[in-house]
Amino acid sequence: MLNDAMNIALDAYKSANRRKGVVYFLLMIAVLQVAVFAKYEDISLNIADKMLRDVGLAMIAIVGALTALTTAFQIPAELRDKTAMTLFSKPLGREAYLVGKLLGIGLLVLRNMAVVTLGIVVVFILKQDIFVDDFGSSMFQSFWLSFIASIDLIAITLILCLFFSEGIVVISSVCVFIVGNATYMYANSDTGLAKIASFVMYVLPNFFLFDIKGEAAANLSISSSYLMYSTAYGLAYAVMAATLALIVFKQRDL
Amino acid sequence: MNAIETRELAKEYSKFLSFKKFVAVDKINLQVPSGSIYGFLGLNGAGKTTSIKMLLGLSYPSSGSGSVLGHPMGDIRTKEKVGFLPEEAYFQRHLSAYDFLNFCAKTLHIERAVRKDKIFEMLELVKMKGKESMKLSEFSKGMLQRIGVAQALLNNPDLAIFDEPLTGLDPLGRAELKDIMQDLQSKGKTVFFSSHILSDVQAICDHVGIMNHGKLIYQGGIDDLVKVSNYSIKVEALPASHLDAIEKIAEGMSKSAGEWVLDAKTEKQKEKICEYLQKNDLKESNIEVSYSELEPVFIEKIKLDNESRGIT
After folding, report:
1. Cβ–Cβ of A88/B86 closer than 8 Å?
2. Residues of A near B (CB-CB distance < 8 A)?
3. Interface ipTM > 0.90
4. Which CATH number goes with the domain that contains B253?
5. pLDDT tens digits for B68-117?
6. Cα separation, A243 vs B108, whole angstroms
7. Which terminus of chain B has a lower count of CB atoms within 10 Å, N or C?
8. Same domain, B96 and B240
9. Which of A87, A91, A254 sits opposite B109 (nearest CB)?
10. Is residue B301 part of a domain?
């Protein structure tokens, strides 16, 4: 099963990585944005460094989320154009297929996030204030939790892929990402939405938990227990979502 | 022993927001003998592809059961011994022919040491050697079909299931694929394929099944299906004293090139004539059986079934 999953993962990675232009485009946009902030830091008054870091970390998270959404362009197409029929006529379990897709896209997320991070690091090096106040370690913590958030997004997208076409999957996944980021704030507010938000928090992943960009940019220390809790929560959610996707997929006719 | 066997296998689809159900496959009892070339015939929408998908575990039956190579349908271990070519060549078009076959070989758990040789052996078999680095997106329909056949035979399957394999191939390609199928049979493998090209089915199949509106309306040897109930019994010497008696039991009789030709319409009638000849020490020199083309027989079967079921 593991070999099959790795075979699918490699195929998913290569398949999603075909459009290298997208990666270069993302990298260029990320570096340009950070570079523009670095150049015109006077517009940000006294918080130039913090803003620069914040934008850089946001870019890394956005690239991770966007790459996670490429899941939407793999599974529905393979199910619709019946590539899956050829695949599953071979001794390949459906669990290996889904796990392979999760791993393959996860690997691509990691690669793309690393590429953008490197680009941003270059800008910081040029600005000569990288690793001031131990920012390097904060950057890594934020990078890690953004990666975990992307894994959750892939797992959610996997479920949606089994029901909808690419366009709907992308829109729904983006909605899940936005709502998952907002629920924590609403659940802890005094508004009438608090109860609904609390309920949604148990269904959708709480992406707010993974958002430590503000703290990292301000160099506020993130405890290791928080990091471990967030990582455990994120991975547990991904396993549950992937298991649900598998239960649905196993019942499905191809 | 049967390579494929189903018992009351059925598939129903529920229509969206409706209690009505569409029966795609209606309790079929397929029996595909091991070592045979079995033609699975039927009009579009007859339920052939749905049946094949259930055999491969790609979709689940609503009721009934079946076995493939002695294991339950869809059993993952069985798939290592089965080769499947889908109706249209649905592959990842961004891959090169070699990369695609390599991916399939890995999925089939073919040892790394022999993988490359196996791929080139298959490329040679389907006359695609030299095109291994071309992307599948650059291939014509016929070329994709050849690659499809290559991926289906990579694991040297005991059972090859081809869904419309001859569609999209030029006459040469069709002839080559028919040769491949006959070659598989000569090696003791079973070939199960659906097709609309009845002349090809007649040329290579020894068994056929005909599907119509989800039902298996005929299954058996192809000779039994296309054999016109017409026997020509040739007798070299027929004394005039027997002519009246034979005229009474035969369908017709004529003399050509010094031989008497006695016609029988049914097996029973043929046996009656042979019995008479034997009783009177008259030896038949030859008994010829006439065969019809498959196409008119197929159409007749479909029409009769439609009439009996009130389908217009």
Report:
1. no
2. 3-4, 7, 11, 15, 18, 78, 81-83, 85-93, 251, 253-254
3. no
4. 3.30.70.980
5. 999 999 898 899 999 999 987 677 888 899 999 999 999 999 999 999 99
6. 25
7. C
8. no
9. A91
10. no
